[in-house]
Amino acid sequence: MPPLHSSTAASPGRPPVARPVAERLLGRPLAALLFLLVLVAAPVPTLAQEPPQNTGDAEGNAAAADEDIETLIRILEDDAARARLVDRLRAAAAEEEYAVLARRDADDTLAARLADYTRDAAEGAAEFFAGLSALVDQLADATNGALAIDVDDLARVVREVALLVAATFAVFVALQLAFRAFQRRLAEQAAAGDLLTRIKRTASSIVLDAGTVALAWAAGYAIALFSIGEARQLGLSQSLFLNAFLIVELLKAGSRAVLAPRWTALRPFPMEDTTAAYWYFWLSRLLSLVGYTFLFVAPLAAASISRDMATVLRVVVMLTALVIAVAVILQNRDTVRAQLGRRAASGRGDPLSRLLATIGRIWHIVAIGYLVAISGLWLLHPDTALPFVLSATWKSIVAVLLGAIVAGFIGRMASGGMHLSEDVKARLPLLEARLNAFVPNVLRVVRFVVGIAVAVTIVDVWNIADVSAWLASERGQAVVASLVSAALILLAGCIVYLTVASWLEYRLNPNLGRYVSARERTLLNLFRNAFTVVLSVLVFMLVLSELGVNIGPLLAGVGVVGLAVGFGAQKLVQDVINGAFIQFENSLNEGDVVEVGGISGVVERLTIRSVTLRSLDGTYHVIPFSSVDTVSNLMKHFSYHIAAIRVSYRENIAEVKDAMIEAFRRLKETEHTADILGDFEMHGIVEFLDSAVVVRGRIKTLPGKQWAVGRAYNELVKAVFDEQGIEIPFPQMKLHVGDSPEPLPRLRSPHDESDDRTPGEDADVPAAAPRSRRG
């Protein structure tokens, strides 16, 4: 029978090799499920009665084989006959290759696959019932053989090995008692020491525990050799026991090294004492039961009694171990479910938490089904199926453990975030936020890739799909290379973006002792937007190219679409062209106070298509450049505050000018002196109003400082005018009602305390405010 994990694909020119039933069942999920249900019903023995061979037929077959060999030799010696044979073989190979390809195409249909699944399930069921019948016959034979056992031979075998067993275990128990006293000291030192001390004491405990097993095994060999006389040769039973003792007790020592049921300080993994003692109790008994039975009792029974009796012993012990294992699984069903669902119970809704919670709900069913399947495969195909399943199991466990370790490490890195030094934060304030937004996503992608790799590994080791062969093929290597190249391009694009964004942030950082002009800030922001668009398009095209997409037609299509959009989107084109010229002319920058399209405000954002303003009341305006006819920048190079002061007609204009200059002198003594670029420009009287004379002056300031300087200057003008009694007038009027002989009292301003005008005076002439009233 070929091995279970052998290749099942038929090579060209060769007929497909028939696979074993167990291998076909394991390679197909539906048939495997039916096979598992059959195994649950009852186990099947392996050792069936071999049919007797007919000696006469064997002799005839040997003679025919010799004649065929002579014929083949004559053909190979004759050149013409050899050439004809080669031609026939080539023709047959071509016909067979064509037939294989035709059968392969026919087998690819859904109906053929369903028929294959059904056939495999039927063959498995037939094999099960055949094995069940053989089990009944074998049990009957074993019973008959047990009745015919030679009691004297059995007693002799027991006497040969009983003394050795008792002596070996006595030595082992004595060594273990002595070792435990020393192990107590190691545990105390490990509990009181640091991590390195604990590691050393734990390693010493493991080595000494294994040493007691080796010493007891050596003592058993010495006892066996010195108790059998001058021949100095061990019997089969003694050798079987000593080998079984060494293997089983070393495995139990390994379990003690991992669980350390007696000493918490020597336990390499965090675990409660009761939990460690519980698992060691059951694990040690299962190891003893299965190990000593398969390595010592069953071989001894096969040699001393019969093979059938040995088979029965193995079957009984395996069923007993299966019952114990199922009981242990059911006892820990709720505990394991709670542990696996702890992440989901804490409120975490990530895919890993949901997966663990789902596994926690069904893990006991999967574990029991797996143990039943292992037992059935051992009974059915111990030489092919069982080694394959055990090998696939430990490979799957290793893959899952490695994937869990890598995923846990990546998850811890992603949850911890990136932390930069204070110097780097001062230079690049936004870099840490960008890294914390970028790196965790990359780590999550890597964790997802690790999960996919673990799943693919499990699929491959269980022969569900021949992933290894596909990866070794030219097509598989091309697909993997394309995916890796695309991932590297994406990673390189992200790194380039982070680098350029960090450089722009460094250039625009005002805390580094360098002046950043509004023009530089605007151009760098425009460069960042344009670079992001170009980089995104470039990376997208390269990724598509690596994935096998022909981007030539895509580029041509984009060009045609762009041309069509250009004709249809004339307004957009006008926006872009106007914006480009506005940027070239440096008409406005971010932070400027401008008037664009009849709206005034501060420029918050500037793109190649539009300008964004924030008006004084906080309204957010987006103005496309196609609607901009005039740009009024109130902060270009320098600014002016226009001081247009209204005074009464009766005031001395020279005194008013002196007062305005005095207010400017006081202004230069305040914190606004750095914002003033020149002397006060006095323009004089610029306008005569109905009730006031306008005297105007101008103050030159830095761009954008005219409003703060103007407010401060107005406060000082008010103060100086109050000190010198210069009047800032306000309108007043006198009302007359009809032909009343006496005019009604004049309506006065609440600021007016007296009226020095006579009745009938023209109401359009403003009255002078009294000197004692300010404001």
Structure explained in plain terms:
Strand 3 and strand 4 form a beta hairpin. The N and C termini lie far apart (116 Å). The chain is built from 23 helices and eight strands. Residues 1-56 and 747-775 have low confidence and may be disordered. Helix content is 66%, strand content 7%.
> Helical amount among residues, as a percent range?
55-70%
If you compute it from the alpha carbons, what radius of gyration comes out, rounded to the nearest whole angstrom? 49 Å
CATH architecture of the domain at 637-734 and 747-775: 2-Layer Sandwich
Q: How would the global form be characterised?
A: elongated
Amino- and carboxy-terminal Cα gap: 116 Å
CATH C-level of the domain at 637-734 and 747-775: Alpha Beta
Q: What would the CATH topology of the domain at 637-734 and 747-775 be?
A: Alpha-Beta Plaits
Query: What is the arithmetic mean of pLDDT?
Result: 75
Task: Profile the largest sheet.
Answer: 5 strands, antiparallel
Oligomeric status: single chain
State the total count of DSSP E strands. Answer: 8
Beta-strand portion reads 5-15%
Uncertain segments are 1-56, 747-775
> Going across the major beta sheet, what is the strand order?
4-3-2-1-5
Number of helices: 23
Quickly list its features.
SH3 type barrels, 8 strands, disordered N terminus, 775 residues, Alpha-Beta Plaits, alpha+beta, five-stranded antiparallel sheet, disordered C terminus
